[in-house]
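Data card: per-record layout.
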Amino acid sequence: MDRAIAPEIVSRKRSRHLLIAGAAALGLIATLLGFSGLLKTSVEAARIRTATAGVGGVENTLAATGQVVPAFEQNLISPIHASVRRVLLTPGTRVQAGQPIVELDKSLTLLEYGRLKDQLALKRNYIEQLRMKLGKSLFDAEISDQIKSLNISGLRAELEDTRRLQRVGGSTLEDVTRAENALRVAELEKKQLENDLSYNRRSMKASLLESTLQAQIEARNLEEMEHKIAAADIRADRPGVLTWVNENVGSAVTEGEVLAKLADLGSFRVEGALSDAYADGVKEGQSVIVKVNDTTLRGLITRIKPTVKDGVVSFLVQLDNPSHASLKPSMKVDVFVVTRQAARAVRVANGPAFKGRRKQFVFVLQDGVARRRQVETGLSNFDYVEVKSGIRPGEKVVLTDLSEYQHLEEITINP
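The structure for this 415-residue chain is written out next.
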């Protein structure tokens, strides 16, 4: 005979069935909600940003970093070995041409200047003495030559007298030979004396020239020392702003050591830096775009530094407007080196929708509906993207990244 099931068992089974049915219903609801998200085909207009395609120039650029520096910065150096006696101006001071900046102790240089001056005076005195001594030697040699000429004249007359006496029997052949030999010896001595005289003249001229050149060298050294002493009063030779000064009073400085730096803060340039991976794309004369906050400035690369440091290539940019009010010394700026450009191209403002791929999908907005369309891009920069195909001028392109809707062909844009 069948036994009745206990009520508590029936109640337990009923509760289990209800729990299973509830879980299934919740799973179905979650699934439907998920599919509704996937099938969602509308976006609020406030969520998207659009731009209208147009025709204009597009430049392809390489992104770099930059720093604003004075277009002109002069190093004021010490012309002598000295010590810093007094610092008259501090960094940041605006100076005028001729205004003193640093005072040096020139005492040792002045002593050296006095020594050179005395040495030059001695050299000039020596030249004068040499000129008188050589003049006397030359005079004595000329007198000796004249005396020798008179002796030769006497010997010639004596030889003629001896020959006449020989003809009348008053002298012998030996007397004539003796007179001839005496005349010949005298003529040879005169020839030797004339040769010595010619040599002495040339020697005197060379000695005087050597001493004069030495004196001229010492005079130029003295003039150079005078110039250095005058330049040791460190002054600004043009208007500007003092950016750095050696403020170590009493410290020794060597010749050629920098004592101060003077900059013209009315005109600036930019020092750019770019990864050496793109070094081949940077050349002198290339156009450059510089972004200073919200201001765009243009310029040209005037010099590329020959060395690569820490994987970075450095270059200098001459700005078209180096005195723009937005420029400040040491300011960090964004630099874009223009590598290629297209004068008339279909272009759209750059935005998150463009991923940098040559071919990709974007959404084009028309009559409240954004339709997916494949486009081919070309040149690009921080402002514009060139569109080679897929978009016509005047069409409105969604710039917001809608990657989550790439599976849809159309999206309704709700007001």
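Known properties of this structure: Confidence is low (pLDDT under 50) at residues 30-39. The chain has three domains: 46-69+262-414, 79-104+239-256, 108-231.

See the next section for split statistics.
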